[in-house]
């Protein structure tokens, strides 16, 4: 299983992006950029850095793309919004433009996230293949981040519209109330372990499902994701929506490899959060870090 690139780089202390030419490009030897192309936008005055992506699993259609912009001194650039352009090639004209919003990661007083905030943009990518992306935070000293993202014909993890797998995930009942068998969370919330995926599907109950390992997550994004899921549960108050947390390692031991539920859901990265409707179909999915605002809005919109 691969961790999202943002998480890997953050954990390794390698978030700083080089400036001056973008990823693998030597501007001094490049011919003049075609007018209106993504390259022409990138060559505009300002610091040039590489986008640090926070997700990897994309397919044709609507995609949530979380990312960082980090300046040459290794400092995240955190402004309320960023303009984003997308093209099929560096020297091609962008076919789409969107606005990314800066989102808070984690919950105050909870697990400390590897990054405090990140940008999130919704992109509609029509076909499989490689895309080029340029992000420019709005305001302040000008900086432009460029990168690529690869879209597969089919995502590795379950897609929106897929039927959720009826996994017999462990619960308080199945473990005799032993929370240590259910989670590595240092301060677990019992409400997240009352129901299984299979039981929720059988009851036609809508649910939010988080795959994450708070204690064993090298990227320090898993604990904050579980905190976010529980925060949204509390904000909703009495609700038919169930909230479930499932660890990713067999016996909560990385040496034993990934557990059967991760394999059933064919997860290529971690953490993940899925929203499943009362009809058993996946309504939304979040790879990597997610904010309370994002998740609450999705739960209210998709699960009623």
Short description:
The chain is an alpha+beta fold and 304 residues long. The chain has helices at 5-12, 38-42, 197-202, 222-236, 260-264, 292-302; strands at 47-53, 61-69, 81-87, 96-104, 117-125, 129-137, 143-151, 207-211, 242-246, 272-276, 282-287.
Binned strand content: 25-35%
Helical amount: 10-25%
Tally of helical runs: 6
Strand segment tally: 11
The overall average pLDDT, rounded, is 90
Known CATH architecture of the largest domain: Sandwich
Estimated radius of gyration: 20 Å
Assign the structural class, choosing from mainly alpha, mainly beta, alpha/beta, alpha+beta, or little secondary structure: alpha+beta
Q: How are the strands of the biggest sheet laid out side by side?
A: 1-2-5-4-3-6-7
CATH class of the largest domain: Mainly Beta
Globally, the shape reads: elongated
CATH topology of the largest domain: Immunoglobulin-like
Straight-line distance between termini: 32 Å
Unreliable segments of 5+ consecutive residues: 8-28
Please indicate the count of domains.
2
**What are the secondary-structure elements, in order, as H or E?**
HHEEEEEEEHEHEHEEH
* Main beta-sheet strand count, sense and barrel state: 7 strands, mixed, barrel
In terms of topology, how is this protein built?
Elements: H1 5-12, H2 38-42, E1 47-53, E2 61-69, E3 81-87, E4 96-104, E5 117-125, E6 129-137, E7 143-151, H3 197-202, E8 207-211, H4 222-236, E9 242-246, H5 260-264, E10 272-276, E11 282-287, H6 292-302
Parallel strand pairs: 1-7, 8-9
Antiparallel strand pairs: 1-2, 2-5, 3-4, 3-6, 4-5, 6-7, 8-10, 10-11
